[in-house]
Amino acid sequence: MKDAAGNIIANICRGSRKDLRESIVSNRKAQSGWSSKSAYNKGQILYRIAETLESRKAQFVDILCKQGDSVINAKKEVDTAIDVLVYYAGWCDKYIQVFSSVNPVESSHFNFSYPEPTGVVTVMAPQKQGLLGIVHLIAPMIIGGNVCTVFASEKYPMTAVDLAEVLNASDVPGGVVNIITGLQKEFIGHASSHMDVNAILFSDLDQVQRKLIQENASLNVKRVLDFSKEDMLSPYRILAAQEIKTTWHPVGN
Amino acid sequence: MKKPIKIKPLNFSGDFKYAPAPEGTEHIQLKEKYSLFINGKFVAPSSKKYFDTINPSSEKKIASIADANAADVNLAVKAARTAYDKTWSKMPAAERGKYLYRIARIIQEKARELAVIESMDGGKPIRESRDIDVPLAAAHFFYYAGWADKLEYAFPGKKASPIGVAGQIIPWNFPLLMAAWKIAPALACGNTVVLKPAETTPLTALKLAEIFQEAELPPGVVNIITGAGATGAALVNHPGIDKIAFTGSTDVGKLIQKAIAGTDKKYTLELGGKAANIIFEDAAIDQAVEGIVNGIFFNQGHVCCAGSRLFVQEGVAKEVIRKLKDRISTLLVGDPMDKNTDIGAINSKEQLSKIKSLVNAGIKEGGECWQPDCAIPSKGYWFRPTLFMNVAQSHRIVQEEIFGPVLAIQTFRTVEEVIEKANNTPYGLSGGVWTDKGAKIFNVTGKIKAGVVWANTYNKFDPTSPFGGFKESGMGREGGLHGLMPYVKLS
C-alpha cells in the first residue's frame, strides 16, 4: 500500500479463496447465535459500534487521509458512518413490527408472517468511501440477524482493517462480520458461486461484474442485492435480506 | 404391569364398497381447438402448430392447443405493452379493482364447469378442484381486487408504482389457482401480463381468458400463450418483459435466474421443496396421521410444499406407521371425476416415469418400500400411495423432490436433532410440526428454515397468507400483503 507520494505505508494481506471458504464456515457457525440474540441486544451492539467509532474518530480521519482523502471529506465520512450505525441500531426492534402481518384467513387458524434473516451474505465493499462504504452495507445486514463476509475496497484496505478492530471492541461476536482484504476481482467469482452463501450484496459494480454475479447466484438461488439505487437510510435495506415466514396455527378447543 | 394390547390389523378388503359417484361432464363447454389469447382475442398461432392436451386418467385427447413460437410471444408482449401504456396504468386504481371483482364473480358462477375441466385436464380428484382450487382462485381475485386502490397503505414511507409488463410461467399442479396467484396481484398493482400455462394443463387458463372477455377486461391487459419450454424461454428472454414470475422446478428456476443475468428484469421464483413434517410424541396421533396423509397425498403429491419427509419421534414411530398404513389402505385411488376419489391420476406420462425411477432408486439404496394393495384402473397414469421406511439423509428419495405420492419416513429422538435433519436440505419452502405443546410449536416453527410452517395442520392456503420459499425454494412471496411487493416499484 502506497501513499500519494509513492511511499510504502503498509503491507496488506492478499486474501485467497481458502480465506473466503474459512470465512464462510465461521459465518455459518455464528449465524444462528447472532440471529437468536434479542433485538434489544443486537441494537445495543450496533449502537456500541457507533460509540467506539466516535471515540476513534481521529484515527479514522487520519487513516482515510493517509489513503488519499481530504481532511474535510474524511471527517464528513466518519460522521456519516456513525449516524448510519445509530440509525440502524434503532431499527433492530422495530423493522419486524413494520414488516410483519397477522393474516385474516378464512379457516379457523391464527396465521402470521414475519421476517427472518436470509443467512450468510457476501459483501463487495465499494471502491469509494473506505469506511462508510462498508458501514452502510453491513449495518442493515447484521441488524437483521444476517452475518457477512466483506471484501474490502482495494483503495481503502487499511480503513477496513481498522473497522475490524472497532467491531471486535464493540462486542460483535466472532464470525458475524469477517473482513477480507485483497483483490476484489479474485473474489467476485467465488463470493457469488459459494454454495453456502445465501445472498451477495454490492453497490458499485459494473455491468460485467453484475452479470457474472447474477449468473453465479443461480447455482443455489442466491439473493442478489444491489444497493446502488437504494436510499442509504431505509428499513427496506433491512427487508432486502429477510425471508418472510408464515406460520399457521389452529384455533379451537 | 399392564399387558400390552394385541392389535389386529384392520381389514379393508371386505364387502364394504363405495358406489360410484361420478360428477357429470355434460354441462361443460370445450372447444376442439384452442388458439392463443392475444390482445383480447383468440388468434391462430403464427407457428400454425398445435399439440394435444390429454386426460391423464383415460389417455384420451381433450383438445388441440396452439403452440406459440417467438413471433407469437412477441405479439403478446407488444399487446401487453400497449395495454400498459395506453389503458391499464392510466386507469384509476379503483376501476382496476372493479375488473378484478368482476372476474372473481364470474369464476364463482362458473365454478362447477372450471372444476370439472381442471380434473379432466390435470387428473386431480374433483373433490379437490371443486373445494380447493376453484374457490381459492376466485378468492384470490377478490382479495387483490380490494388492494388496487389501497397500495399507499401497503408500503410505509414509500410510493408504489407498477413495474410494467410481467411474464408469468405457471406449473401443471394447480393450473387455474396458479394463474389466479400470478394474475390477480399483477393487475391490482397496475401491471399487464403475458401468462404461459403448463403444456399438460392449459385448459382452465384458456377458460379464464374467456372469463376476461366476458368481464370486458381491456384488450391486452392479460395475454395467454400456450406452449412448452421453448415458448417459456422466448417469454423469459423477450426484452420487452420487465418482470418474470415463475412457479416450477428448482432446475428451471435456476436456468431462468441465469438467463436474465445482466438485465434489469425483476423476478420472483417459487420453486421446489422437500418439506419436513415432524411428529412429536406428545402430538394428537390420530390427527397427525390425517395431517401426514393430507400433507403428502393431497393432489397426488404434486405439490411443491408437500410434506414428503416425515420425521416421527421414536417413542411413537411404531404406532404412527401402523396407523398410517391402516389409513392409507382406505384411500381410494382412481377416477378423478368420482366424488369419492382420494388420489387421482398422475398428471402426465413423463411425471409417472420420474416418480417410478425415483422409487426404484429408493429401493436400490436399501429403503423399505410399502404400498397398499389397492386396485388401480388399467388405462391412464396411476401411482399407489407409497411409504419408505429405513431411509437415510443421503438417500435420493430423502434429498430429491419426487412430486408424487411418495413419503420417506425417518425417526428422531430430540428436538435439536430433528431441527438439524429438517434443515438438512437445499430447499426451504414449507414444514409441519405436530405437538400438543404451544411453547414447542413456537420453538420449532421458528427454527425451521422455510417460508410456510403449519402447526398441527398441513397444506392450508389462503389469499391473505403469504407463500414462498427460503434458500433454493425460491424468492419473493405470493399471497397477502407481502405478495404485492413483487409487482411494484417503490420510490
SSE arrangement:
The complex is a heterodimer of chains A (253) and B (491).
Chain A: H1 17-35, H2 39-55, H3 57-66, H4 71-91, H5 95-99, E1 101-102, E2 109-117, E3 120-124, H6 132-143, E4 147-151, H7 157-168, E5 177-180, H8 184-193, E6 199-202, H9 207-217, E7 223-226, H10 235-240, E8 242-250
Parallel strand pairs in A: 3-4, 3-6, 4-5, 6-7
Antiparallel strand pairs in A: 1-2, 2-8
Chain B: E1 33-34, E2 36-38, E3 41-43, E4 50-55, E5 60-66, H1 70-88, H2 93-109, H3 111-122, H4 126-147, E6 160-162, E7 165-169, H5 175-188, E8 192-196, H6 203-214, E9 222-224, H7 229-237, E10 243-247, H8 250-259, E11 266-270, E12 276-279, H9 285-297, E13 309-313, H10 314-329, H11 349-364, E14 368-370, E15 386-389, H12 396-399, E16 406-412, H13 415-422, E17 430-434, H14 438-447, E18 452-455, E19 474-475, E20 488-490
Helix pairs in contact in B: 1-7, 2-4, 3-4, 4-5, 9-10
Your description of this structure?
The complex is a heterodimer of chains A (253) and B (491). Chain A has 253 residues and is α/β, with parallel strands linked by helices. Chain A contains ten helices and eight strands. In chain A, strands 5-4-3-6-7 form a five-stranded parallel sheet, sandwiched between helices. Chain A has a three-stranded antiparallel sheet with strand order 1-2-8. In chain A, α6 links the parallel β3 and β4. The longest helix of chain A has 21 residues. The mean pLDDT of chain A is 96. Chain B has 491 residues and is α/β, with parallel strands linked by helices. Chain B folds into two domains: 260 residues, 3-Layer(aba) Sandwich (Aldehyde Dehydrogenase, Chain A, domain 1), CATH 3.40.605.10; 180 residues, Aldehyde Dehydrogenase, Chain A, domain 2, CATH 3.40.309. Helix content of chain B is 37%, strand content 17%. Chain B is built from 14 helices and 20 strands. In chain B, a hairpin with a 2-residue loop joins β2 and β3. In chain B, α9 crosses α10. The longest helix of chain B is centred in the N-terminal third of the chain and has 22 residues.
